[in-house]
Amino acid sequence: MSKASKRHLIVPFFVLICCMLNLPQAYAQPSGGNFGLGIQFGEPSGLSLRIYQPGRMSADILLAWDLDDFFYANVHGTWEKSLGGSGDFNFFYGPGAFIGLRERNDRRLFDGDNDVNFGVSGTAGFNVYIDRVEIYVRVTPRLLLVDRTASDIGGGLGFRFYL
């Protein structure tokens, strides 16, 4: 991962922290339903889905793409731990897996024409709930297992609206 890519992940993280410190009121869990739908910006960007289960493992799904003609689905089981007594800020983490398709040759993690890739991943980050909206920042290390072994790291800043 280049220094510029790392900076693109760090800047949104600090912006999110500054925004969270100025929030008037936050909640320990979404006030809407248990299904969250939103967008993640970062490496990669995509559609973010979450099936929230308080006190248990929640399903976290990212259907993503990047500018290198790559599409993939990343699925994690996440647990959430409250930071501090108020429950306003949370730390989440969990294991997962991904499957992806790259349409052109690239010297990064995924290479070759029209490759199908599979691997394991993990995710960790921070979130806050404001009424029916979740704002989060995450880091996602990945380990490619098929058709070769390689590693990469991604992440992003996102939000979800709970229905």
Automatic annotation (TrEMBL):
Keyword Signal attributed: yes
Keyword entries, A-Z: Signal
Signal peptide positions on this chain: 1-28
This protein's record includes keyword Signal: yes
Protein name (Swiss-Prot/TrEMBL): Outer membrane protein beta-barrel domain-containing protein
